[in-house]
Amino acid sequence: MWTSKRASYSLTRLYCCASPKQLSSSSGPKMDYNAFLSEVSKRREPSALRELTKIVFAAPKETISFSTGMPNPSSFPFAEIKVSLKNGEEFSVNGKELESALQYLPTTGYKDFIGLLQNFQDKAHGPQDWNTRSIIVSSGSMDGISRAVDMLINRGDPLVMQHPLYSGVETLLKPYGPKYILAEQDQDGVNPEWLRSALENYKKTGGKMPKVMYLNPTGANPTGTTLTTERKKQLYKLAQEYDMIILEDDAYYQLHFLEATPVSLLSLDTDGRVIRFDSFSKVLSSGLRLGVVTGPQSLLRQIELHMQSTTLQTSSLSQVLAHQLLQRWGDNKLQQHYKNVREFYKERRDAMLEAANKYLKGLAEWNVPTGGMFLWIKCNGVTDTNEMVMTRGLGKQIILVPGRCFDVDPSKPSPYIRAAFSLATKDDIDLGMMRLRDLIKEEQALSK
């Protein structure tokens, strides 16, 4: 984010930030970020026009700019955008703020919105050193994750992957052909001791060691598990020992069902080896497409360079609308909203657990989700749920997701299914679990 008000800049000065450098925290070692970059990322260079956009937005008002091809907002047909909230609140976007909402912005995001996000991150994860860390607003968290993968992974690289894994990440990674080192989960999420053993076994092969660890720590998709603070500390220590960058994909951070808010890996990061991905999709609107990437400046600069050549920026309108809303609410109202959202999903989780206990006892096994939107169910006596769900399940008017969708090898048989409790009513949840009971019984009979 550019805060200088001087009108004179040089492109040389702008470009000097493009090369990843060594950064260090007061308590951690120096990180050579260049060693983590993919060959593609190392070849990225700044876009002169996108760099000039930063200058335009940072320059004093009296500065005359002939530099960019921004459209004149006076030619746009929109005069005002009015927003009405379900709680009765209303606000409007007009004037200069509307111009910002309808105009190109610097790639990193809307300056006022980023300032607000920095304050929120300081409150949620402890004071951050914004001299060494920064924020980029992405088009949903998945957009940020995909760019981080492009930045860090070469084809065939080894990668520590939480398993079962979010199917979207498996689809994203497939073209890279990574060698997976699986971070298997139990009822409390990734087990650090299991992962240490897997890393040591992989080390014995003599191959290149992984430089990236992907974790989905809160209300993991699909398992619903949440890592304890102690496990996070152990996993961070493993990342230090094996020199890995952690991708902390925490889209369900505000959808935990615990007494205390989970401690983030970002808050434990003393070295500058965590890139955190937050999302407003689950708590404000998935259609706004707003994600927040927080991490070391040098690495986020590489993500910025990627965005400069593709999307240019995240929707200005979405950023301005979110900024208006969050600024009006402040932290207290925002936290109350998060609490309301958690209670909403917790009620549905409890309804699904009640229905599962009513209909599936003896037929299936599950753990109580501590966050997220899903119940991860193991069907007893069923080798693979794929045909059961995709063919016979549709015939019984129930749609589920077969477990093989969450494996690094989607062709591998799986006895699991994922059931989402986010959209279904309590009555539908009860009826759906009854239909699932019948489906499992039929499948068990066919397997004999």
UniProtKB/TrEMBL annotation:
Membrane-spanning segments: none
Cofactor(s) required for function per UniProt: pyridoxal 5'-phosphate
InterPro entries: Aminotransferase_I/II_large (IPR004839), Class-I_PLP-dep_aminotransf (IPR050859), PyrdxlP-dep_Trfase (IPR015424), PyrdxlP-dep_Trfase_major (IPR015421)
All copies of domain Aminotransferase class I/classII large, residue ranges: 99-428
Pfam families recorded: Aminotran_1_2 (PF00155)
Keyword terms: Aminotransferase, Pyridoxal phosphate, Transferase
One GO term of the biological process aspect: alpha-amino acid metabolic process
Molecular function per GO: kynurenine-oxoglutarate transaminase activity; pyridoxal phosphate binding
Record has Coiled coil as a keyword: no
Name of the molecule in the record: Kynurenine/alpha-aminoadipate aminotransferase, mitochondrial-like isoform X1
Organism: Thrips palmi (Melon thrips)
